[in-house]
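Here comes an entry:

___
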Amino acid sequence: MDNSVYQSAVPTPAPDIQPPTNSSPLDKLKSFAPKTPPKLLYIFGGVAVILLTLALAGSILSRNRQSSPTLTNSTSETIKTDGFITYLNAPHFYKLSLPPKWSVVETTPDQSGALVIQTDAQAVMTISSFPAPTGTLDEYLDSLTDGRTSTKTNSVRVGAYDGYERFESWTKTTLQPVITYIQIQDKIYVFSLLPSNGKNAISSESLLRDYRSALSTFELTSTTGLGQEWKPYDTSRVDGLDYPPIHFTHPQSWAVKESVDKGNLTISIYRNNYEISIAQAAVGGAVCLFKDSPSFQGSSGDLRTKEYTEFNTTVGGIMRRYFNKNEGEKSTFYFCQQQDTSSYFETPTQLGGIVYYVPAKYDSAIIKEMDDIVITFEPITASASATTQ
C-alpha cells in the first residue's frame, strides 16, 4: 500500500454522552463515538464552496488516558483458522477471516469503515479505522482521556502488524471489553470484542481464541484492481437552484452522499481521506485569470502564478484544476470551467463549486482517479428522467 494513502487528520474529542438506561451493548459502544466538526468554508472570488460534514459514526475513536497498564507479552496459544470465511472490505482496503458461525450484521459507508460482527457467543466484534490524531500508537493510547482504563495490556501481532491488546474497563458503561489497537502508517485500526446479552465482561477463553485467530488473518489489500467496475449516480434536483442535477460515474470503492440545507445541495464523493465536494448554492461568480488569460475588468481571481491541470469532460466542457493551499493536515484543489462564449474560465463551474479535499501528503494516483470521476460529470436536462439511486 502506498505510504500516502493514509494521512493524519485531527478528529474532535469524544463528547461526554451518558448512554440511556437499558441501552444495548452497541448503544453503549456508540456513546464513545465522536462527531466530526463541519469542514472549513472555502471562499474564492466571493464564491463559497460548502464542504459536506462526514460523520465518523460507529468508530471507537476517543481520547482517553490509559491508567498505568500492566504490559505483558503476547499469548502463545495456538492459532487455528480452519474453516474460517474471508471477509473483504474493499472501500477500506483490508480483509480478514472469521469463524464460520460469526456473521457481519452491520456496516457503515462512512470514512471510519465501521463493521459490526455477531459472534457465536455473548459478544459482538467491531472493526473501525480512522486517521491517527497523534504520531505513534503509544502516543495515541497515552492521550486517551474519557475515563477508560486498561487492567491488562498485551503486545500482540495483528496479521503482520504489531499492536496492543487491552482488557479495558469503561466507567461510563460498566462494560469490560477486549480491544486491540494497531497503527499502519498514519491510520489506526481498532478491533473490539464487546460483551452483549447482559454480560459486562469477556470470560470465554474459546471466544478469545477465535477473536485472536481472526485478527491473525488481518491484512491490507492492494488498491490495484479494486473499484474497477464503475457505477452511475444521478444527484437530486433542488427547486430554486439554477444548477442542474448531475450525472456521473464512480468506482464502487468510492461512496456518495448528498446533503440539502436551506435550499443548497452538497454532494460528497469520497474514499478514506480523499473527497470530491460539489456545492450548488445561490452565490455569485468570478472569472479565473490564469497565466494565459486575456486582461479582464470585473470580479476575478488572480491565478496567474498557479499551475493547473486541464481536461475535457465527456460532454465537452473544459475544466482546469489547480492547487489552492495546504492547511495543516489537509490540502485543497479548486476548479474553474471555461465559459461557453469566451476563452475565460470562471468559478463556480456550470455544475457548482467543485473542490478536492485531500491529505497534505496526497497520492497523485488517487488525484488522477478523482479527475477520472470529474471527467464523467454531465448536466441532466429538465426533460431527462432521474435515475433511481
